Amino acid sequence: MNKSILIQNYHPQGTEALIRDFKSIGFRVFSPDSDWGRIKYFAENTGLGSEIISFESYMKTEPGFVLIGCKAQEEDLKSIAREHGDKMILNIAQQNHVYEPHISNILICPDVGLWKNYPDPIQHRLLYFPRPVIANVPAKDIVQSFEDRTIASFISMPTFWTRGLPAFETFRAQWQGNCYMFGHQATDGLLTHSQCNARMATSYFTAHFKDEEAYGLSCLESMMLGTPVVSTHEFMRDKTLGEYFLRPENSIVTDTVEQAIAALEALTLDKYRQLSENARTTVLDLTAKEKTVDILNHAVEVEMRSI
Predict the structure, then answer these.
(1) What pLDDT digit, counting tens, does each position of 147-185 carry?
(2) What's 142-286's CATH class?
(3) The CATH number fitting domain 4-130+288-306, selected from 1.10.3470, 3.30.230, 3.30.450, 3.40.50
């Protein structure tokens, strides 16, 4: 089996991180140069680090692997993999992916709910946390962020989240400082990745109220930039973000919006500084190479020996 993998963009920063990690373990990474007339959920792949390839050229390469990035692309990419003779690696970037027997034995799974409850046995089931790709923005000024008290949220299509949007609006109405929501169809507009990271770095907290969340990449980016997350247990329960990353020493997660507001208002500068430092340390620890890339490399090597 050829050590190559086809990766189609499902989320630019998440895709870039996975391309980076597969290349680091010796894979040749391909991405489609167009929708190939058969990828309904297609986004441009340029600039993410992979080799851009046509469908005709891909079909002439030796069979390798295909990564299933999100549910909307699943059936289309499975069809391509079957036609080309590829094995599949399922990356659970979203919920409800379906493992296909006799195709591949590797499940990369940031969705902890599916990780715990997947019905079929899989030899290599990896709870894999790719380290976020961070734009080059100025370092966080702790004192300035503390004094400005600006809260920002980074959630696209907020009207889709029937519980999360009302919770955020309640939070924004009660917060005495500036409070913004950025993203596709969000009230304060769509930002580029570097603009998002710059906003994260200067914010007091990142607010995250979302009904479903497989991983929480924007929150991890925020934490890596030193800005803690505020949310409620309703939105963090049984989520990878809430179960593994958000802890009392690095974030504020309460039972109600009112309690969250009170906790934010009660923070001292020293406590805020500790939350900021701990937020960054937590993400760097859980996404460290020995906990992610090395484990992925081992699973791939075992899988390839079994072929």
Answers:
(1) 999 999 999 999 999 999 999 999 999 999 999 999 999
(2) alpha beta
(3) 3.40.50
